[in-house]
Amino acid sequence: MSLVSVSSESPASEVEGPSTRARVRHRFPLGFYVLRRAVAGAVTVLIASVVIFAAITLLPGNVAQIILGRNATPQTVAAIEHQLNQGLPAWERYLRFMGHLFSGHLGYSTAGLVAGERTSVGSIIGPAFGHSAVLAGITLLLFIPMVIVLGLAAGLRAGSARDTTISVTSLAISSLPEFLVGTLLIVLFFDRLGLLPPVSSLAPGASPFSNIKILVLPILTLLLVSLAFGSRVLRACVAEIVSQDYVVLARIHGYSKRRIVFRYVLPNALPPTIQLIAQQLQYLIGGLVVVESVFDYPGIGTALVNAISVHDVQVVMVVSILLAAFYVMINVVADVVAILLDPRVRTTIS
Questions:
Q1: Distance between CA atoms of residues 111 and 303, nearest Å
Q2: Domain map (residue ranges) of the chain
């Protein structure tokens, strides 16, 4: 009797099913994956912010003296140090900086404080980000259809003269740095043909669309380098898909080339294409700095270079952290979109 009573009154914890977390993860695998990637991305950005802050503010030397240069006096150095909170511990300065950043207050330009002005960082980088978004957006809109066309043209006829021409040209262009491609384009379209301006400067407050000609050479530079890399990657992906058994069987059954491309090749090439687009967006982050400097275009790359040249610590830190956050966000979004497009990958996260 005692044995029966013991077995019938066994604790519920001994027979309970999966934990709540496991049930939620099994029921909403994609949502759980997105949440996990978002948390990992936030941690990555936080670590990057610590590294950036340490690299900029903890290096040897007095920031105030560096900025003031020959005009540095004990009184002016002390005043700048007070404005920059140099007397506080590094960890407290970091927490204050991040607190202001999360609240939307980006602080004031360090170079402006030295000059006796309170110029907000937002007023400096806001227009610059907008100008860079124009370059990156137009480049990406042109890149996506062009890379698909070139990748299909080369991959569907792997080993042909067309494939060789596209591959060799892409390899030659991708081996050249952005500044050299931009310089060659200036020589061709300005020095030789006289068609386009060599610089892409704008008047303060002017829209990039006020003079379309100034956008052509920077966009063409970014596009050439991006297409050279992207077409090679997509060409390899398409060539691999075309050799798969299901594509060969479709050809044997007499399916038209158009049907094979749009029903079998492109759907299977889309997930790698999404990753490719993400890589190009990440490339644009670094490529814009170089290209904007070559053409003197007033984007975020030029703003960052100018801030570094005048030791504007606040602008450099804010821009660097925002670019790092953008870089991480691109990775997370690209992974989620690739999972949505590929059922085979969705099954691996359930």
A1: 13
A2: 28-114, 129-349
Tell me how far apart the alpha carbons of residues 229 and 219 are, in angstroms, rounded to a whole number: 16
Six token digits for residue 288? 């814009």
CA-based end-to-end distance of the chain: 45
DSSP 212: T
Q: What is the mean pLDDT of residues 204-223?
A: 87
pTM for the whole thing? Answer: 0.76
Query: Tell me: domain 129-349, CATH 3.40.50.2020, correct?
Result: no
> Whole-angstrom Cα distance, residue 38 to residue 332?
7
**The amino acid at 310:** V
Backbone φ and ψ of 116, nearest 5°: 85, 15
- Structure tokens belonging to residue 113: 């404080």
Residue pair 170/250 in contact by the 8 Å Cβ criterion: no
* Maximum distance among all Cα pairs of the chain, rounded to whole angstroms: 104
Q: Which amino acid is at 131?
A: H
CB of 143 within 8 A of CB of 226?
Answer: yes
269/265 Cα distance (integer angstroms): 6
Of 209, 273, 275, the closest CA to residue 241 belongs to 273
Rounded CA-CA distance 312/63 in Å is 9
Contact 302, 290 (CB under 8 A): no
Query: pLDDT, tens digit, for every residue of 325-336?
Result: 888 888 888 777
Return the closest-CA partner of residue 292 out of 128, 123, 142, 163. 128
